[in-house]
Amino acid sequence: MTSFASPAERHPRPTDAAREGARLRRHWRELVRLALDAPDVLTSSMLYPHAQGTDRKRLEARMFGSRSDRLALAACAYAPPAVLARLCTLATADADATLATRLARNAATPACGLQRLADGLQRLDDTRTQPCGDRIAQLLARHPLAPPALLARIAANTASIDTLRSLCENVGVQPDLLAQLAGRGIEPLQRLLAIHFATNAHTLHHLWHSTRESAVRAQVLRHTACPGELLRSIPASSLERRSLALNVRTMGEVLTALARDDDPAVRRAAATNPATPAGALILLCFDADLLVRRAIAVRDDLPLKVVEWLAEDSDVWVRSSLARNRACPRIWLDRLARDREADVRRSVTRHLACPAPLLSLLASDEVAWVRAGVALRDELPGRVLHRLSQDTDIDVLAGVARNRGTPQATLARLAGHASSDVRRSVILNRHAQRRVLLPLRDEPYPLHRVLVFMHSSLTDADRWRMRFEPDAEARARMYGHLACTLAAALDRSREPPSVATATQAHEPGTHQLTTSVEEAG
Description:
ARM-like, Leucine rich repeat variant, ARM-type_fold
């Protein structure tokens, strides 16, 4: 059994290079053995990208020997791209339509693997698997990592509306391909083309003049690349006017007119637009529609007079939004901090410039949710933080546990709290020290153990002791980190001493693995 190096041994002397390499290889062999003995293949998959030679073949035999294991890996959202690429090769060689479908659906499948699946589609084009082949083509057309050449090839070789629709929904499609699709004049695709962020002004202009559909034109008017001449007139359709009111490039006089529109949805859109003139905002802050006033209350460019009017609004959401707004001055924060509604007082605690006297006042609020908002403030005075640490409410204690100013002794006490929410907050505190986190390595929740494992305060020796993790997903994530660290250390051990020293100087965060378990205690 082996473990990680102590800080003093992370830079061994060149004369110890041979012994260091032997120790690193022993670490790696143990990690591979544990992965092969694990009851699932996820652990082996995390070592696969870093394995070479015989180890790589052993891991392949463990991962790909069973079709059920292949299918499980193909559906795993965090499987390494190297594993998914290898599965694409196997799916093509075996003409396994089910495996290919899962790989095409997996967002982590790399571009090279998607290309192999596309090349192997013709093997699925018989009578029995034709529907599967169409489904794979649709998934490839929608995949965000599909290379542009593959997408262009799919577009040129298909007449399927479903596949073309998938192309229009793909965030990686290039503007020239979108222009080609728009040129086909297929009505079901026009709205999707108008929505796509990569559609250029020329294509939008073509869509505007080739359709009478209000939904399509509304998307053209909302698009950031919308031609300027389309933003200078007010359309008749309410849907189009709302989109025009949302576009930040719409002229000020047009937005002023839209702020007086009969449709409250259009007025709400104008209220959210940062280009809406101040005169229109004054009009909107008295709007009869609650949603319009709420949209005004979240703007951070409000004139002081508008803040005064909104602070007296009868709607609690308006006052709550205003209390969080950085445009709200101190004088109105004082008033909102004494509001009858707890949600408003809670919002005051989340104001970026909330002064310390108000935080001290709200730390004694009768509603725990308000006190919890105070506990999340990092700049709290020590006496206020101490008072909150004596609270009995879970939300308040969780806020104290996340606070970077909480003393380590308090964090150690909260780390033993009966509530998992409080313990998780301790783990998420980036300033928690190693001695606080060590007892949390035995947390009953796998997510908590993974968060402890990845905390920067732990040493590599601490992480190595967690290699017997019982949960499959947690173990896979831990082994992925250990394998990456070991592989980097092994690569350095094979370099000449001068090169290895230079590499360590440029990669201070990667540690070497040297000591045995007995030496690590």
